[in-house]
Amino acid sequence: MDCRTLELRLLSADQIKNVNNFSTMDVYAVVSVSGGADKHKFITPIHKNCGTHPRWNHSPFTFTLDDAALNQNRLTLKIKLISDRILKETKIGKAVIPVSQLLENSGKDNIPYVTYTVLRPKEKPQGYVTFVYKFGEKFWAPLPVQPKAQKEVLEQPRSLMSMPHPQAEYEYSSLLHLSYGYPLQPQAEYEYSSIVQQNYGYPIQ
User: Fold this and answer.
1) What burial letters (b/e) apply to 41-80, b meaning 16+ CB within 10 Å?
2) Residue 71 sits in a domain of what CATH number?
3) Ranges for the C2 domain (predicted)?
């Protein structure tokens, strides 16, 4: 299949919600792309005592994208902002951007510098994130192999045989050994296919 890379460096967030009651926030971000085979999640360094204006200085995050999924608008970039706390981490908000929109706005000779709205858990906008990104040239990679069917054991009780098989989490180019809790049950190796999701972001006007 045809692929291309997306390199992204998150620069900052501003005017985000202060979710700490008695202390200054320490903020980091989790960056991922949903809807394709690449399930990597990248985490920025924690900006200590930054409050509502975190800044980051990190190496670019690199995602490998299925070009067909990209052109069909199935890929979504997600940037989740989190307040790092001793007892419990708290979600601040997230930016959700169609990757196809980034491709449309990208140029060959420059690295786009963009700002998108941060949405609170109830979809209320508050704050924004700024990042730079760059798409690579197309290249070819082999298609992921479809998972093989698992045979049922006839000796299993009917009530257990009727139960749905547990679903595996998906990750690009990786193998996971699954078993269903029966000592004599043979294991099968699975390779992963993609999960399609779609959300939409709200760029700053």
Assistant:
1) ebebeebeebebebebeeebbebbbbbebbeeebbbbbbb
2) 2.60.40.150
3) 1-113
**Domains identified in the chain, total number:** 1
Phi-psi region of 190 (alpha: psi -120 to 50; beta: other; left: phi over 0): beta
Q: What is the mean pLDDT of each run of 10 residues along the chain (205 residues)?
A: 92 96 95 91 96 94 94 96 92 97 81 92 91 91 55 40 42 35 41 39 51
Q: Are strands 139-140 and 2-14 parallel, antiparallel or unpaired?
A: antiparallel
DSSP label of 147: P
Query: Rounded to whole angstroms, how far apart are CA atoms 187 and 173?
Result: 19
Token pair in block for residue 159? 């009530």
Tokens representing residue 46 in the block: 């924690």
pLDDT recorded at residue 204: 52
Supply the range of the domain harboring residue 84.
Answer: 2-140
